[in-house]
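Session log. Operator J.P. requested a structure for one protein chain; no other inputs attached. Running the standard single-chain path with token output.
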Amino acid sequence: MSDQFPPAPWDLAFERFRELDAWWSGNTVELNDIYSHRRATHTVGGRQYSGGVVGTLTKWFLGQPIDPDEKRMIMHVPFAADICTLSSDLLFAEEPNVFFRNPDKTPDPAKEYTHPAQDRLEQIIGTDEAHAELMLGGEFGAALGGTYWAVAWDPAVADHVFPKAYAADLAIPEFRYGRLASVKLWTEYHDGNQVFRLIEEHQPGTIEYTLFKGTAKTLGSPVPIGSRPETAHYEQLRNPSDVLVSIDGPGKLPESVKIGTGSSRLAVTYMANARPVIDWRKQGQLAHLGRSDLDGNQDLLDKLDQTWSSMMRDMENGQGRLVVPEHFLDVGSKPGDGASFDTYRQVFAGVNTLGGSGQTSDSQITVAQFAIRVEEHFKIIEEVSRTIASRAGYSAAHLGLDATRGLKTATQVQADLSDSERTRDKKALFARAALARWSVAALEIDKAVFGGPELGDMSRLPDVEFAPVSQADPEKTARTLQMLDAARAASRKEIVRALHPEWTEREIQDEADLIMREQGYGAPDPATFTGDDEV
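Structure written below.
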């Protein structure tokens, strides 16, 4: 690995990650620094220009130069964070169901199928901690374009493996034909200007841990992994050959700790948020990275902050100001105290003024009151927000932009959410594939580390099902099923399955049989009834 960190061509990607992360976190200081250096090539008369002999005037609000004596109003709207949270909620607000499907195409409803590894899989991924990690990973992906799911374990904290999410700006992957082949993940520890990075190099079947000491821009040199208290426990993972080396000569102990995982699979999977990143599609390895929900919306997010800041500036300017003659001011007793005006004073001593005859004191006091253009600003904010939501693929209703548009029927509400649901379904394609691969690797590593019964057939990946985003209108569903039944276009079992998609095959069959018996379809033929038949 190059001492430059991150190495080329990933420095290009990490510069984009820095920008996306600043929008996600709402760090306006970071955004001003990014855009002041990137957008402008020179300044004329206090205005930034980009390129050419004169260039074009840059239109970005953030990054414009500010005079040190100017108190410019800069307010941030956390709309980017709202979009990332919504994306994660749509996928992972309800825990996904990960299960091994019966390989038999015609399963017997009377016999429930359970894969030998199903119970252990539910212990691994069916916990509240795992669900919370999935939520975190969903937000990572929406903000930075993708999430790396690693299989983690530590007998001191859990008796099974568990998922750990890494954001895209903590990984350097290697893709082959768009599939993740290996990856370097890391965790940073800052100590002044020094940066310690624990690099986890994942290859199929192995993980190598190395602690580096460098700076924000360089990787630096390897140091003993026990140099930091946060990484000292990795020494316990050393294999017996390393222990023998340390006995013969402590100085010969390798800096890295390399272990086998007990699985021939990669212990990390990559979940892209969306694809492609359009301006990276010809950039080699970068072409396989996922696209952020914020990518392409940065200019609109900038205008949203500009409009919100303008409205807040109007609010400040709209606070009434009194303009009074100089002789109304109270001058301090000492030089440098300045002058002030007491707005609660009730009586002013008679003075000779330059005012016209008959002009009273109150007529010499004027009020400066600027209008607060709330309605105009709100209209701009709403339209810009709608455009951002639409370009990111989300329904305005899901972001609260339709809250004031009156009551709607259930059918109308479901239609309003269709954009978000369509986007969520596309993201679920990447999520299902990543979680299915992760689950099999996790089970195999868990068996190697913690033991337990045999896993059974691991050649087939489990299925991953996500809960529906919005509930269908019950009245509409009932009418549809009634028409199917009247047309004899669906069996009783299929109608029950459509009404209760979350039920097992056994529950569906039992309900269908009960309905048939209640309607008399299961009654014996009176002409042949002997009394010995079961009813």
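Operator note: The radius of gyration is 33 Å.
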